Amino acid sequence: MRALATALKYAKGLFIVGKELNKVTTFGDDLQRLQEGLKALPDVLKALESPIYPPDIKMEILMELLKQFKVDPEVERFLQLLVERRRIQYLNDIVEMYQALVDEELGIARGEVISAFELSEEEHKTLEEVLSEVLKKRVYLKVKVEPEILGGIKVKVGDYIWDGTLKTQLKRFKEIIIKGV
Amino acid sequence: MAEGVHGITASQIKNLIWWTVNFLALIIILYKLLKKPIVNFFVSRQEKLKKEYEELLAKKRVAEAKYVELQEKVKNLKEEAEAIYRSYVEQGLKERDKILEEARLQVERIKEQTQLFIAQEMEKAKQSLRLELAEEAVKLAEEILRQRITPEDQRILFQEFVENIKGRMMH
Hints:
The complex is a heterodimer. Chain A is α+β, with helices and mostly antiparallel strands.
């Protein structure tokens, strides 16, 4: 809980700077790229999050990392600040929260669509457009394929859930039989 | 001497008189001295006897009364015994009725409990059967769907989903 509060504090700080410089999206994209890149380098991420390594070592690692992932100078300074203040271990949470703040600012809602089969680009787009109209926000969906749901799709956006999977329908069918209705 | 041999002498008469006078004097003295104690003794004795007699009479009366009472009791004894017997019989009958009533209620309770238990067990069995049936049905349905669902079906389901959301939006 305390970690989340700290992450939120730093995310808000960066967001305010981003707004002042009119770079909230750029910062968000930079952080997203960095986060994705770190996912591919789990040892580096582990080293950054580990309390064993002192800040100067972590700073060296970060600088090496930033050579690969070019980011805005403000973002770079922000990341250095996180290392100096021994807060780099909250990077993932900070990125998530920053993204949430950006989404809120830009009227964006992010969610997930679970499908039994691979959706085509067109289907993906259609779904995002329909949900954007429903939620009055620009909706972006990540696709996750789960054959266990048998058929249909399930969409989660924030607190909203639309479940049209055959698995869920079968579950309801089972409940009806059990209740003897 | 001859006079003396053939008749009473003067000294003899004198002695006779003397003895007679002495005797009379003794009688008088005895009478004077013993009259009161003797009279008192006999009066006392008489009173004592009278008192004892009265006491005995009282005891006799008490004994007679007791005798009458006992006779009365003996006379009533049979009736009392019968009354006690009747009372015991009555109590026994009441007790029997009470025991029978309790037994009847107990039987009803056991019957109700048994019926309830049977109903619960039936319900459990039904529920278990329904659960088994549901699980089997769903399992079978899943297998069939896995085998037979086609990409075309998936597209149709997707379209239905989208239409459903659009429909909700319109309403």
